């Protein structure tokens, strides 16, 4: 009876030992390395079970396998016995299970985890987190886009878990979050040690159109293009290159946004401090054209000092033209200082003032009456514009085109490009006007014709035409018209038909109009003048003598 009881107890203990020692498939068990051969480690997992694992499963990314005989390791039991009677085990799967437990805790505690990038996939990279594989999106690799991830491959470094799902086996990590956090800490520390006005060395990291970003040792500052030099800088690449070490001054620090403004020109003397002493008013200097706009051109007098030549101060003669047609960029020009405003850092310059006013020169070299020759530049309804020396124009008014007829009738005889001669009649320097006369080249036939004729003179004319309203007469080639009322003192004799073409008639000059080039003539006025003269000489209208007696006496006296 006692023996039966002891056998039952032994059997129970034996079964219990089987249950304890025999591990379940799909679990992690401990084993001991008993041999290493043919690139594999032979591991005893207990209960007379051995399995083989490739040595590469014991290697960290980028490292050699770290294992030797006698080491105790944890493995994942996939199958108790295979066809060869060996246990099917895996170190990698054991590490994965161990890693998931560790990573879930780190995810819950928001702790960093170490890992190594070992592969590239669509949209990012794969990361080994000590047995578990995670996905690293491309946007989470660095704070700035990474063109070459080669230097990061296989490098053990910290990551932040963004998301994980054990059931689906998904883990998403970020390297950028770690960098931003450390960058923020470093940035705060560096900014805390900086003060406005401090001079510091930095390295140019990036160049844009508006400036350059300079690394000050963990924090970037912006060096704006306007703060690089006192002179005009069209693009930062003119004076800076990426990787270059430069000395800058801290201009402003924004404690809230952690933005730092830097300057280079502040380390140099401000050229504007001596502008008024160096560039006195009306002094002339040579400068270089740096920029051309619709309203003028900027000229650099020295690095950092620019002045504006307004379009109105560029040329004496070229009006309403774009400055680009007068000067070109980088051209050396001579300018005159017209005005300085140091407060606004502005200098007004003049280009035309370095040359003499062409109208003044013309007035000195071409006094009134000087004969000139030029090309017809333009024809308008009121006259001709003639090109003259000094790139200026003179105008011939319609009234100065010809002595004969109207200017409107002869202006059609001229064409652009014709070379014509004229005489200077007036030069107005202030209004920049030159009046010319073509007809002045010849003497005035009207003046030549009337000679010494004055108002009141008696002249002899020839009748050339009979009309109802009077008669047309000619004197020295000039036509005049005597109205019916001026044909005789006697109304009965005021008949045009009593005259014939070719008759010679004595008339009195009543008016000389130089503008209309006409003589006012009258037979009636001559008769009245003769009567008055006879009365004055031979009698009076109050003496009782008749006009016939007086005229008879006058005629007798003449005889």
Automatic annotation (TrEMBL):
GO CC terms in record: cytosolic small ribosomal subunit
Record GO terms (molecular function): mRNA binding; structural constituent of ribosome
Record function comment: Binds mRNA; thus facilitating recognition of the initiation point. It is needed to translate mRNA with a short Shine-Dalgarno (SD) purine-rich sequence.
Name of the featured protein: 30S ribosomal protein S1
A Pfam family hit: S1
Similarity section: Belongs to the bacterial ribosomal protein bS1 family.
Chain ranges of the S1 motif domain: 26-92, 110-176, 197-265, 282-352, 369-439, 456-524
Source species taxonomy: Bacteria, Pseudomonadati, Pseudomonadota, Alphaproteobacteria, Rhodobacterales
Keywords from the UniProt entry: Repeat, Ribonucleoprotein, Ribosomal protein, RNA-binding
Organism: Loktanella fryxellensis
Keyword Phosphoprotein: no
Xref: InterPro entries: NA-bd_OB-fold, Ribos_protein_bS1-like, Ribosomal_bS1, Ribosomal_protein_S1-like, S1_domain
PANTHER family: 30S RIBOSOMAL PROTEIN S1, SMALL RIBOSOMAL SUBUNIT PROTEIN BS1C
Biological process (GO), any one: translation
């Amino acid at each position: 009876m006692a023996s039966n009881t002891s056998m039952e107890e032994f059997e129970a203990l034996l079964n219990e030992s089987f249950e304890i020692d025999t591990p379940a498939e799909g679990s992690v068990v401990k084993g001991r390395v008993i041999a290493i051969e043919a690139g594999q480690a032979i591991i005893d997992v207990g209960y007379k079970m051995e399995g083989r694992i490739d040595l590469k499963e014991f290697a960290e990314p980028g490292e050699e396998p770290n294992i030797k005989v006698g080491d105790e390791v944890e493995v994942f039991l996939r199958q108790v016995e295979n066809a060869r009677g060996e246990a099917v085990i895996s170190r990698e799967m054991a590490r994965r299970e161990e890693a998931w437990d560790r990573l879930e805790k780190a995810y819950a505690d928001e702790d960093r985890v170490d890992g190594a990038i070992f592969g590239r996939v669509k949209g990012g990279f794969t990361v080994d987190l000590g047995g578990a594989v995670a996905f690293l999106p491309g946007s989470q690799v660095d704070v700035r886009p990474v063109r070459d991830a080669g230097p990061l491959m296989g490098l053990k470094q910290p990551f932040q878990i963004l998301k994980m799902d054990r059931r689906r086996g998904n883990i998403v990590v970020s390297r950028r979050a770690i960098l931003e956090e450390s960058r923020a800490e470093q940035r705060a520390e560096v900014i805390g040690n900086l003060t406005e006005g401090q001079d510091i060395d930095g390295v140019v990291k990036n160049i844009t159109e508006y400036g350059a970003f300079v690394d000050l040792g963990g924090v970037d500052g912006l060096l704006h293009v306007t703060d690089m030099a006192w002179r005009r800088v069209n693009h930062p690449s003119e004076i800076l290159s990426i990787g270059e070490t430069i000395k800058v001054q801290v201009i402003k620090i924004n404690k809230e946004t952690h933005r730092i403004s830097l300057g280079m020109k502040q380390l140099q003397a401000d050229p504007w401090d001596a502008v008024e002493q160096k560039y006195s008013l009306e002094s002339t200097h040579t400068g270089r054209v740096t920029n051309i706009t619709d309203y003028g051109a900027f000229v650099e007098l020295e690095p950092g000092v620019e002045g504006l030549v307004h379009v109105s101060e560029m040329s004496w003669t070229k009006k309403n033209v774009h400055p680009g047609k007068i000067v070109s960029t980088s051209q050396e020009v001579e300018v005159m200082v017209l005005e300085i405003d140091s407060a606004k850092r502005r200098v007004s310059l003049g280009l035309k003032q370095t040359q003499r006013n062409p109208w003044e020169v013309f007035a000195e070299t071409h006094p009134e009456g000087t004969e000139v020759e030029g090309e017809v530049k333009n024809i308008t309804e009121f006259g001709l514009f003639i090109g003259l020396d000094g790139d200026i124009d003179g105008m011939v008014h319609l009234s100065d085109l010809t002595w004969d007829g109207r200017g409107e009738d002869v202006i059609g005889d001229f064409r652009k490009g014709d070379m014509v001669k004229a005489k200077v009649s007036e030069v107005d320097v202030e209004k920049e006007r030159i009046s010319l006369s073509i007809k002045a080249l010849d003497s005035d036939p009207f003046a030549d014709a009337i000679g010494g004729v004055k108002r009141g003179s008696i002249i002899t004319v020839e009748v050339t035409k009979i009309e109802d309203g009077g008669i047309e007469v000619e004197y020295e080639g000039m036509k005049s018209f005597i109205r019916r009322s001026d044909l005789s003192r006697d109304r009965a004799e005021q008949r045009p038909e009593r005259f014939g073409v070719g008759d010679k008639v004595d008339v009195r000059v009543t008016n000389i109009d130089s503008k209309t080039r006409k003589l006012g003539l009258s037979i009636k006025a001559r008769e009245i003048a003769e009567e008055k003269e006879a009365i004055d000489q031979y009698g009076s209208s109050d003496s009782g003598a008749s006009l016939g007696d007086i005229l008879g006496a006058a005629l007798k006296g003449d005889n």
